[in-house]
Design brief:
The complex is a heterodimer of chains A (469) and B (456). With 469 residues, chain A is of the alpha+beta class. Chain A has 10 helices and 31 strands. In chain A, the strands form 7 sheets. In chain A, strands 25, 26, 27, 28, 29, 30 and 31 form a 7-stranded antiparallel beta sheet that branches. A 6-stranded antiparallel β-barrel of chain A has the order 1-2-3-6-5-4. In chain A, a hairpin with a 2-residue loop joins strand 30 and strand 31 (460-467). The N and C termini of chain A lie far apart (100 Å). In chain B, a hairpin with a 5-residue loop joins strand 12 and strand 13. In chain B, strands 16, 17, 18, 19, 20, 21 and 22 form a 7-stranded antiparallel beta sheet that branches. In chain B, strands 24, 25, 26, 27, 28, 29 and 30 form a 7-stranded antiparallel beta sheet that branches. Chain B has a 6-stranded antiparallel beta barrel with strand order 1-2-3-6-5-4. Chain B has 456 residues and is an alpha+beta fold. Chain B has 3 domains: 18-253, Thrombin, subunit H; 255-352, Pdz3 Domain (Roll), CATH 2.30.42; 357-454, Pdz3 Domain. In chain B, 20% of the residues lie in helices and 37% in strands. Chain B has 8 helices and 30 strands. The termini of chain B are far apart. The chains are: A alpha+beta (469), B alpha+beta (456). Chains A and B meet through strand 17, helix 5, strand 30 and strand 31 of A and strand 17, strand 29 and strand 30 of B.
């Protein structure tokens, strides 16, 4: 009798704990069961001139409106959103022929995350990861603390979810607070939880490990191996939770703030102490871009940025993280926002007030037309094209060969992707519209035997004769 | 292989073949013998092996490497013709092995990487003192060569002295240019090449290609690696001129206007040209005399200094470029240029042709080797100007490597001072050697500007 009563109390105790949300640490199966609802697999197709390539990525559920977040690496940022087709959302472990349709919402400039919204019918089966967030701001993970997360198998295995766990070995600022575990804890882009199931962060890919490879011919060749399906590194929830609500207002991801300081490089501590800057961190401005807010504000090539709005740039390890920090600071602002930069110019400190502008048209937003008979795609010449080719604003013209079909007339004539087309049939093409009109007329003219392009590659021009028959 | 059907008895068949061969041999014997006895023997006594020790700067320190090539003595006073990629100004020690197998020292008279030729002078005093003897080879007219003609290559392939291989002229007017073909220097822009299937191996470089009388028709220079007997030689008619120029001035000075031509091929219709007229300009070097005269890609040069030009095929381009290159530096060049319906007559003043490869140097205390950025290199890489030193090597553990400098960086400033010349950097390095102190380096790599500290 007494024994029975005791057992009863014990069971009650567990039930109470469960309702309080702080479930017993070891009840992993049920924690897993609930949290796997904040995880999906997303498949989509990238359409090019010749083919459609499928991509599969893990994604996490950001809110109750069916908003899904894919890691930055899931989609090449040069791809125009219009070329991303057929988003399909799969629940882990459900038959792969049973999917819901998704819509691409765009890329957030701060996090780099891609946002997708899934159709109504699936939303009830999903739980946003924020539902598992800590009620109060939690302390940083302690060294040795255990964390776990979710991985997804391939499409042929119905994206079956599986469990991973490891212990924290280090927390770093990269510049977000980032936990590094002893072994893989989750698929990149998927959430990580602590032992009680509280949302602790999102796993990030791109971290490799160095090994020595021994073979019959090589003695200890250093190689870097990267697990692309799983990661042992995760950005802590406190740093990235605000990003979950940064759903792009439109598919272009705009507004995107622009400063126009090109190729920032970190200033290392040795240089700081040589320049008598003590413990100060900083970024060297390699180039100030023509026509940019930085230029009109008077920023100069080789200036060293030391502070934003009077706040000194923090010191990070590795040194180069300061550049990411600065980029995040910029992209979190809006076009029109003003900020003041403290820069070191020679030995002098200069204060610069700059009003950020809207980012010029990006490569992924450039218009393009594929001429099938000629065998190439003409793409609008955008601001970035001028930057990489060192072309002055006033001299920007023509179009860029975005794609060249192998063995096509254009390819045979020597046209290569990224060639800059300046003239068509001996006459300069000033604008994209003019170039497309000319090329379309050539493509439509069945009597044409050939046409001639003047192209530029690496600063050197060449006359190409494209033979059509 | 086995014979398939034999009507006659095997023995008689063999006998007949042998007879036929013997007859053939007899018929050719007198000519062949004559070649061997006179010209060829004389040539063999003029071919030398060249051992080179040269400095190299690509490891962050001044180091020495050794190599073997071939050469041919072309004058009674001991001038030796070889390849520029065998004997360059980097050579610190040149020794020559004569036909008698005796070794003698030699010095570099001059080199010309554009034609891949270099001229050495044998130490005549030593030759006299030791009582050695040599002969010199004769040149034949390379314009008389015809595809299919038998030629011999003589040289030191893989160090095997006095090796003769035989082949034919495969093509007597081959065009190819290589922007970094001779130790990183340009070659082939102003000449065509002889192509032969005589076996040319590493070490043959600089040796003569000769006709059956042992007269030099070319200087063996290069072969396609991995191909079967596709080898190239500089024609003797070009070599003769280069020998004269190097012997007189130690260098061949050429003129430059900055046009990059392209073969017109079948573009005549498009440009409304008569067949076999005009030189197509593919590209114009920014800042060059041609660019300043307003020329650009797609222009057609109809004549140079009044002489009409025909650049229809790639093989025709080197001689045309050579017309400009052969002018004295600072000479006026009058072009007739067609652009669309317009014809203009710009007058250009030539500049001195310079290599993209600048002078190299080692800063021993920094563990850093550099190459001066040249105007051509700056142009090629779209740099603002020729300021700076290209890092070509860093020595692990030395200040430059520790600071994070790497190959490919371009050092633009040291201690805030702009590095306009190698001399500026040498002075700063001397100061560092005399009184070691942290030194600030500004370097550019792919347009990214970084700062580094060299610590003693």
């Amino acid at each position: 009798m007494i024994t029975a009563l005791r057992i009863h109390f014990f069971v009650l105790g567990i039930a109470l704990l469960a309702t309080a949300g702080a479930r017993a640490a070891d009840d992993v199966p049920s924690l897993f069961q609930e949290r796997v609802k904040s995880v999906v697999a997303v498949e989509f197709f990238t359409e090019s001139e010749l083919d459609r390539r499928p991509t599969v990525s893990a994604a996490l559920v950001a809110d109750a409106n069916g908003t899904l977040v894919l890691p930055a690496s899931a989609i090449n940022s040069y791809v125009p959103p219009a070329k991303l087709k057929d988003f399909r959302v799969y629940l882990p472990g459900r038959p792969a022929n049973d999917y819901a349709v998704g819509e691409y919402l765009g890329q957030d400039p701060v996090s780099g995350w891609h946002f997708v919204r899934v159709e109504e019918k699936l939303r009830a089966s999903l739980v946003p990861v924020t539902a598992f967030a800590a009620k109060t701001t939690s302390a940083e993970p302690a060294m040795g603390e255990e964390f776990w997360g979710i991985g997804l198998r391939g499409k042929d295995e119905d994206f079956k979810p599986y469990f991973m766990a490891s212990r924290i070995s280090l927390v770093q600022s990269l510049p977000e607070r980032t936990g590094i575990a002893l072994a893989e804890v989750a698929a990149p882009g998927l959430p990580v939880f602590d032992r009680s199931g509280v949302f602790a962060g999102v796993a990030v890919g791109g971290f490799g490990q160095t090994y020595l490879q021994y073979s019959r011919n090589d003695r200890g060749l250093p190689v870097m191996l990267m697990n692309t399906d799983e990661s042992s590194v995760f950005q802590l929830a406190a740093a990235i939770t605000p990003w979950l609500s940064r759903v792009p207002a439109n598919v272009s991801g705009r507004p995107i703030a622009w400063l126009g300081a090109y190729a920032l490089q970190p200033m290392d501590p040795e240089v700081a102490s040589f320049l008598k800057l003590g413990d100060q961190s900083g970024c060297v401005v390699s180039e100030v871009l023509e026509g940019s807010p930085a230029e009109s504000a008077g920023l100069k090539n080789r200036d060293i940025i030391l502070a934003i709005n009077g706040q000194a740039l923090p010191r990070f390890k590795p040194d180069r993280v300061v550049v990411t920090y600065f980029d995040r600071e910029l992209s979190a602002r809006k076009p029109g926002d003003t900020l003041s930069l403290t820069v070191l110019r020679g030995t002098e400190r200069v204060e610069i007030k700059v009003a950020l502008a809207e980012q010029p048209k990006l490569m992924r937003e450039a218009d393009r037309t594929y001429f099938e008979k000629l065998g190439f795609t003409a793409r609008e010449f955008v601001y970035g094209d001028g930057v990489v080719r060192r072309v002055k604003l006033a001299a920007r013209k023509g179009v860029v060969a975005h794609f060249v079909k192998p063995s096509s007339p254009a390819a045979t004539a020597g046209l290569r992707p990224d060639d800059w087309i300046i003239e068509v049939d001996g006459a300069e093409v000033k604008t994209y519209a003019e170039a497309v009109a000319k090329l379309a007329a050539i493509e439509a003219d069945a009597s044409r035997n050939d046409f001639v392009l003047l192209t530029s590659r690496g600063g050197e021009t060449a006359v190409l004769r494209v033979k059509l028959k | 292989m086995k014979p398939v059907t034999v009507k006659e008895s095997p023995k008689s068949s063999i006998t007949r073949k042998i007879t036929l061969l013997a007859v053939a041999f007899c018929a050719f014997l007198p000519a062949a013998e004559a070649a061997v006895s006179r010209g060829f023997t004389r040539l063999m006594d003029a071919v030398v092996r060249i051992d080179v020790r040269e400095e190299s700067f690509d490891t962050g320190a001044r180091r020495f490497t050794a190599g073997i090539g071939s050469g041919v003595i072309v004058s009674a006073d001991g001038l030796i013709l070889t390849n520029a990629h065998v004997a360059s100004p980097r050579a610190v020690e040149l020794s020559v092995t004569l036909a008698s197998l005796e070794r003698v020292n030699a010095t570099l008279v001059g080199w010309d990487h554009w034609t891949d030729l270099a001229l050495l002078r044998i130490d005549l005093a030593e030759v006299k003192r030791r009582g050695l003897a040599f002969t010199h080879a004769e040149f034949a007219d390379s314009d008389d060569l015809f595809p299919g003609q038998t030629v011999y290559a003589v040289g030191t392939p893989h160090g095997l002295t006095r090796t003769v291989t035989r082949g034919i002229i495969s093509n007597n007017r081959r065009y190819f240019a290589d922007n970094r073909g001779v130790k990183g220097y340009e070659t082939g822009l102003f000449n065509t090449w002889l192509q032969t299937d005589a076996a040319i191996n590493p070490g043959n470089s600089g040796g003569p290609l000769v006709d059956e009388k042992g007269r030099v028709v070319g200087i063996n220079s290069r072969g396609y690696l991995g191909a079967d007997n596709l080898a190239f030689a500089i024609p003797s008619n070009i070599a003769k001129k280069v020998v004269a120029g190097l012997a007189a001035n130690g260098a061949i000075t050429r003129s430059y206007i900055g046009i990059v031509p392209g073969a017109l091929l079948d573009l005549e219709g498009f440009y409304s040209l008569k067949q076999n007229t005009g030189l197509l300009i593919n590209s114009v070097d920014p800042g060059s005399p041609a660019a300043r005269a307003g020329l650009r890609g797609g222009d057609i040069v109809l004549s140079i200094n009044g002489a009409p030009v025909d650049g229809r095929f790639p093989e025709q381009l080197p001689p045309i470029l050579n017309i400009i290159a052969s002018l004295p530096v600072g000479a006026k060049v009058k072009l007739v240029v067609k652009r669309g319906e317009q014809t203009t007559t710009p007058e250009l003043v030539t500049e001195k042709l310079e290599s993209r490869q600048g002078e190299e140097w080692a800063f021993e205390k920094w563990g850093l080797t550099v190459r001066k950025v040249s105007r051509a290199y700056a142009r090629e890489n779209q740099l603002d100007d020729d300021t700076g030193l290209l890092v070509i090597g860093v020595q692990p553990g030395f200040p430059a490597a520790v600071a994070g400098l790497d190959r490919g960086d371009i050092i633009t400033k040291i201690n805030q001072e702009r590095i306009a010349s190698l001399e500026v950097a040498k002075k700063l390095h001397e100061a560092f050697v005399a009184k070691p102190a942290p030194t600030l380096i500004e370097a550019e790599s792919d347009r990214r500007v970084s700062l580094y500290i060299l610590k003693p």
